[in-house]
Specification:
The chain has about 375 residues and is mainly α. About 80% of the residues lie in helices and about 0% in strands. The chain has one domain. Helix 3 crosses helix 4. The longest helix is centred in the last third of the chain and has 33 residues. The N and C termini lie far apart (about 60 Å).
């Protein structure tokens, strides 16, 4: 709880002069705390557990016994050993982290999208802010890495190294993903000159990584071995097993190409709001009814966003071509969750793994809507 209060104090100190941000922080905190209170009531009535399996693992885990999630387990160990109301405090920590992540997203989009619209169109974000999970912090570190790459200053490359190391301690796979996206983003923007103009900075980063690679060589070796195993088990063997033995197994055909497409459809469109409503009335969700209610609202809005984009598909190319290099990188990163988790577990991942892709859909929706309004206003002006 003290850690949560400290992070909150730092947030208000940093943004106290920005009325719009303070208003957003206040509203987000209020709504998140209301949701958390309702979830505590469900726990009090034995409707749900205080902690999910992943939350329990993070809170009571040993960072020395894992090659991933090290940073998040370490943060939890500090809360567990030195904070008050440890379990509750660990679940509240994501409120300030979630807020700063949305603020970072807003800056990526040049503050053209009001901060409050993120939680208005993606209400399940508020539920995620009350869970002891690493997802929000991962998104924040990735955004800050891309932002510093865009800045291109000497100090930026020092910060990039820090963010990459922190990200490596949370989700090593995404470090590789960042390098892939940086290259893809440059190809899309056709700015190969960037590589020449920043070659000194790249040399500095490479030297820093060589130094860090020597310092953390044992940890890197463990991660390499872990990923060699995980690629075989999770992304090949377990993909087939999850397709065969989950309740969605009737869609499994044995044809990997066809099944990947089916997994992608499941990732993008599942769960249907109707199935969530059915689960709400049956009371079978171990996360409780509050989780179901917000997920129903969230998915209904998400389906509206998808339909709007489909109906205005002709605007997509224009919108994407107007994106800056930073926006392209962040958009590619958020969108990358779809192919990754479509393949992983046959697309049947938790809502928190779908949220980044849905953020990308929301951003695309908002820019298309803005572009349409601009075109309409231009036509009206020309007629007058």
């Amino acid at each position: 709880m003290l850690t949560f209060l400290l992070f909150t104090l730092l947030l208000f100190i940093k943004y106290h002069k920005n009325r719009e941000v303070v208003k957003f922080i206040t509203i987000t905190y209020l709504l998140s705390l209301i949701i958390f209170s309702l979830k505590l009531m469900e726990y009090g009535y034995n409707i749900t557990e205080l902690m999910s399996g992943d939350e329990y693992y993070y809170y009571y885990g040993d960072s020395g016994q894992t090659t991933q999630r090290v940073l998040w387990i370490f943060i939890n160990s500090i809360i567990r050993n030195y904070d008050i109301f440890g379990e509750i405090g660990s679940k509240l920590l994501n409120i300030p982290i979630g807020v700063i992540t949305i603020i970072a997203l807003g800056k990526v989009n040049n503050n053209k999208i009001p901060y409050s619209n993120y939680i208005l169109f993606l209400p399940y974000l508020l539920v995620m802010f009350t869970l002891n999970l690493r997802d929000n912090l991962i998104i924040f570190f990735v955004i800050m890495t891309f932002k510093n790459i865009e800045d291109g200053l000497l100090k930026s490359y020092f910060l990039i190294t820090i963010y990459i190391v922190l990200l490596f301690l949370l989700r090593p796979l995404f470090v590789i993903l960042i390098f892939i996206i940086v290259i893809m983003g440059r190809i899309i923007r056709l700015k190969w000159a960037f590589l020449k103009s920043h070659r000194k900075a790249f040399v500095i980063v490479i030297l820093l990584f060589m130094f860090l690679g020597n310092v953390f060589k044992d940890q890197i070796s463990k991660v390499t071995q872990s990923y060699t195993y995980n690629i075989q088990y999770n992304y090949i063997d377990n993909y087939i097993n999850s397709a065969k033995f989950t309740k969605y197994g009737d869609g499994y055909t044995g044809n990997i190409s066809r099944d990947r497409i089916y997994g992608a459809f499941r990732y993008v469109f599942a769960p249907l709001p109707t199935s969530l409503i059915s689960r709400l009335f049956s009371g079978t969700n171990p996360q409780g009814r509050v989780d179901d209610i917000f997920r129903i609202i969230h998915q209904m809005i998400y389906y509206y966003l998808l339909m709007y984009i489909i109906l205005n598909i002709k605007h997509v190319k224009k919108v994407l071509s107007s994106f800056t290099y930073l926006q392209i990188n962040v958009f590619l990163y958020l969108s990358a969750y779809m192919p990754i988790y479509s393949f992983y577990l046959f697309g049947s991942s938790h809502q928190r793994h779908k949220i980044p892709f849905q953020i990308a859909i929301f951003i695309l929706y908002y820019y298309i809507m803005t572009d349409k309004k601009s075109s309409i206003n231009k036509i009206k002006y020309e007629k007058t």
